[in-house]
Each structure stands twice: as C-alpha cells, then as structure tokens.
Write a structure and sequence with these properties.
The complex is a heterodimer. Chain A is built from nine helices and twelve strands. By secondary structure, chain A is α/β, with parallel strands linked by helices. In chain A, helix 3 packs across helix 4, helix 3 packs parallel to helix 5 and helix 5 runs parallel beside helix 6. Chain B is built from twelve helices and two strands.
Chain lengths: 253, 300
C-alpha cells in the first residue's frame, strides 16, 4: 500500500521571508526520494508541508487523491479543521530529527498508543503488529524500556516503528540521523533501507549522500527555497548539471 | 607537597576526614531542643489534658470535616477552572487571552478575606437571583440571601481565588512540554483534544505537581478565614469552645494539631502522585537518592 505525492506551485513565507518558491514535484508511489540541500534551503519545511505541519501560502499537495490540509470551496482553498487534518495525517507517517518519543510511555506503549487510541483497533491485533515492527527494527528485547534508557539510534528505530504502526501509505523522514553519534547512524539507515524495499513511498531529508546513492530512486536538490535540480539518483549524483549542485556535492563528499 | 614521590603508600588504610565541628554543633542543637521540649511538657499552662480531651470532640471533628470539604471542593473546582483559564490564556483568540488575564489579575489582587466578605454580602448588590430563558420566561427565582449561605459564599470565594492561582501553575506546566511532542502526536494523527489529554497533560503534570502541592496545602490553611463569616471549620469550632471555657491556648493547639495532621497526609500523598507522574523520568529521582545514600555511606 503506497500512494504517489503531487506538489503543485507551493509557496511559503515565514514573516515576510520566502522559504519555498514555486515548488512542483511528482513522487511516484512506492519510490524513495531524497531531498538534499544546504541548511536553510527549505527542505525540512517542504517535508513538513506534506503532512500539513506547516500551512501553505499558495499551491496544493495531493497524497493519492487526497488534497492535504485544505478543501475547495468555490474559488477558494479553505483550511480544514484540525480534526480532519488529523484524519489525513493517519496515512502519512513522520520521523523527526529529535525522535520525539513520548517520554512517559514505554517503548511498546509508544508503538501501540496511536493505533489503539486513534484507530480504536483491538489490543491483541495492535500488540502483535507492534511486536513484529519492534522485531524488524531490532528492539524486541527492549519493549518495556523507557525512551530515556535507550541510545539515540535505538530511540529513532522505535520512532520508525511507532510511525509504521499506523500502517501509513507515505513515510516522511526529517533528518533522521542528524542528531545521532556517527557510530549510531548506520543502524538507523539499515532500518530505512529495509523499509525502502517494502514498497512504501518514502521522502527523506538527509545529508547522508551514501544513503541517497544506495537507496534513493530520485534526488531533489534544493537551494534558497527552490528546486534547483531533480531526477534519477545515480545520474544526478554522477553528472550534476547545475553548478550549485556540483559545489554542494564537492563540499559534502 | 613535602612527601617524596617515591614514598611507599602501599598497605595504608584510607580513613575519612573527622568532622569534629559537626559533632559539636549537633550536640548544641540537641541540648537546645531538649530544653524546649521539656519546657513545653512541664509548663502546666499548655494544659495538655484539655488538648487531649478536646482533640476528638464532636464539634471539632465536624469542623475538621468542614475544612476537608472546603479544601477538596475548592481544589477540584479551582484546578478545573484554572485549566480552563490556562487554555484560554494560551489560545489564539485574543478575547479569550484578555479575559483570562483580567480574571487572574483581579482574583490574585484582591485579598481572600475581602473576596469572602464581598460574596457573603452579594445580596446587597443583587437581592434576587432568577434564571430567565428566551420564549419560556422566568424558570427559577430565589432570594439571594437564601442561596448565599456562609458555605456557598466560602466555596465561591475559595474557588474563584484558587482558580486564579491554579491557572498560572497549569499554564507553566503546559508551556514546559517540548513542542516536538505536539508535532509527534499531530503527525501520528491525534486530534487536538487527544493531544492535550494524552500527550500534553501527563507530561505537564511533572511541572505542575510541586507548586500544586504547595497550593493545596496553602488552600487548606486558607480555609481558616471562613471563621469570620461564622462557618464552622476546625478553627471556628475551637473558637466556639474557648469562648465558653476560656481555654484559649489548648484549643488553638487542638486546631494546630489537626492542621499539622492534614497537611502531613497531603505531603505524603503528593510524594506518591509525583512518583507516578515522573514515570519514564524516574532515574533522575533514583539517582538523587542513590547519591544521598552514597554520601552517608562515606561518612560512616
């Protein structure tokens, strides 16, 4: 189960400063897209627009057939009430740079809470799924630990399992390894690689060029709020056309 | 300093520093305490037999119940109102923000005693209370003096007062929750009401509880002001007795004893509630106790 994402004419300002300008992007169902770019280029903001953590100033975002965050009324796009946005977000998983596990819930509770409380699924069903997911991310032995007892890499793997427990059609990763010690980055990327082969649509904001080269189908390079270059991952990394991208790649490699 | 670097320390036993000053000060303080205690128990004017006699007197016990009733009601409704005020204050609606601010400003500014007299005498402002619905007309009416008894005046004043203080405590708690927690909950598809109840409030409680514990104990003691409108709480019950018998000090000691007992029970309760809400963060607390224990081991 995966859905395509269509972004059309996205504009976004923060108090007068334009952070996204005229973004148009098609992400195929089941593909892995990596968004690269220097800090402040708007890549995280773009990702956060996809599940409406940020409002748009212009443009539309479609996940599958669903217009995210808005509905059409005559010639206007009216922002949806939060309860309806919440319904849309159930289908869009997100993983954060700072993990954001719920500190007052155990590992297993973190993974089980949303399906139990939001989708009101039966406990045995949710528990079986949660245990399977924690097994997949290699943390079946820590189910009763508190988040703060885990390393950063372990916390991030729980966060991935927590997002997957809602069986989303799309997964968004906002710099998932940037807050980790270098030696812990690998275990998180390993889990993401597994996930990439599962056929879910993935959009990943990262600085891990190695991950992009190995796993991504497409790469989008952003600078100063706009898409500078995008296309097939290997082609783009091996023969970048735009001088800005060449400069960026030579500085991070 | 003066030791030679090659001096042989092997086989020497390490002994802690001897704190003779601590022994000395402890002895002095213990002597002073003993003197005080002996004067308290040997001075016949404390009249401990009268204290013991009145401690479980029926009217005193009823007074204790009244104090507990006022505390429970004003804390429950006060914190419910305080939570509402905190949410108003943090809302995006400028009118609600302003109203919440003005409420807190007013009810924190006016002394409890003044508020109590104002509510008790509200009949002077509104002699009659009535509920009128459009198209139906008057459905309920009563004389204000029948509705505003000493008890309801006390409850009104205590709740209004408490909610103003609770509002600030709850607001601080809500603001202490990491915004990343809200985003994580949103991203999973939680609705705003669920986010507040299941993500924000349980985490805010860690910040809310210590000042709230203060507030509850403070409120228990504040209820003593109701004696001025002749509501029979534990203090007023004691006053009634000593106005008849002139055993002022023993009866004030009876009231003191009950206040001590009630606040002690609350303090113990607060400790366990705090332990519950710090789950997931418990290592910090345990580490603190372990460090304290280590220090003691070292001294022995």
């Amino acid at each position: 189960m995966s859905e395509p994402i269509k972004l059309r004419g996205i504009h976004k300002q923060f108090s007068g400063k334009t952070v996204l300008r005229d973004i148009n992007l098609d992400i195929a169902a089941g593909s892995v897209t990596v968004i690269l770019g220097p800090s402040g280029s708007g890549k995280s903001t773009l990702l956060r627009c996809i599940n409406h953590l940020e409002k748009l100033d212009a443009g539309t975002i479609l996940v599958g057939d669903t217009l995210v965050g808005y509905r059409r009324r005559g010639q206007h796009l009216v922002e949806l009430p939060e309860n309806l946005v919440a319904l849309q977000r159930q289908r869009i998983g997100m993983v954060f740079q700072q993990f954001n596990l719920f500190p007052h819930r155990t590992v297993l509770q973190n993974v089980m809470d949303a399906p139990l409380r939001i989708r009101r699924e039966k406990r045995p069903v949710v528990e079986a799924r949660a245990l399977k997911l924690l097994e997949q991310v290699g943390l079946a032995h820590r189910i009763s630990a508190w988040p703060r007892e885990l390393s950063g890499g372990q916390q991030q793997r729980v966060a991935i399992a927590r997002a997957l427990a809602m069986e989303p059609e799309v997964m968004l990763f906002d710099e998932p390894t940037s807050a980790l010690d270098p030696e812990l980055v690998g275990e998180v990327l390993q889990v993401m690689k597994q996930l990439a082969h599962s056929g879910i649509t993935m959009v990943v904001v990262t600085h891990e060029i190695g991950f992009a080269r190995e796993v991504a189908d497409n790469i989008v390079f952003m600078d100063n709020g706009a898409i500078v270059e995008s296309g097939d991952a290997r082609t783009l990394l091996d023969s970048p056309q735009h001088p800005r991208l060449r400069e960026f790649l030579s500085s991070v490699l | 300093m003066s030791q030679r670097p090659d001096e042989d320390y092997a086989g020497l036993r390490i002994v802690g520093h001897r704190h003779y000053g601590r022994w000395f000060s402890a002895v002095i303080v213990l002597i002073l305490l003993t003197l005080m205690a002996s004067s308290v128990f040997s001075n016949p004017r404390f009249e401990w037999d009268v204290v013991a006699q009145n401690l479980t007197e029926a009217s005193i016990l009823n007074g204790v119940l009244m104090t507990i009733k006022l505390t429970v009601i004003s804390v429950l409704f006060g914190f419910a109102g305080g939570t509402l005020l905190a949410l108003m204050r943090l809302s995006a609606n400028p009118v609600l923000v302003w109203v919440s601010w003005v409420y807190t400003w007013f009810f924190r500014a006016v002394p409890m005693l003044v508020q109590l007299f104002l509510w008790y005498n509200v009949a002077a402002l509104y002699p009659k209370l009535s509920l009128t619905l459009p198209f139906i007309g008057e459905v309920w009416t009563a004389s204000t003096n029948e509705v505003i008894s000493p008890f309801s005046a006390a409850v009104l004043a205590l709740v209004m007062h408490q909610s103003a203080y609770a509002a600030e405590i709850v607001r601080a708690g809500i603001q202490s929750v990491n915004p990343g927690q809200l985003e994580a909950a949103k991203a999973l598809g939680y609705r705003p009401g669920q986010i507040f109840r299941q993500t924000v409030l349980p985490q805010a409680m860690r910040t809310i509880l210590p000042p709230a514990g203060n507030e509850v104990i403070g409120q228990l003691k504040t209820t003593a002001v109701v004696s001025v409108i002749a509501l029979q709480d534990v203090l007023y019950s004691a006053q009634i007795i000593y106005q008849r018998t002139y055993e002022v000090i023993p009866l004030l000691l009876v009231a003191t004893g009950w206040y001590l007992l009630m606040t002690s029970v609350l303090s113990v309760g607060q400790y366990y509630v705090e332990v519950w809400f710090s789950r997931g963060n418990a290592p910090a607390r345990r580490r603190f106790f372990r460090r304290a224990a280590n220090v003691e081991d070292h001294q022995l």
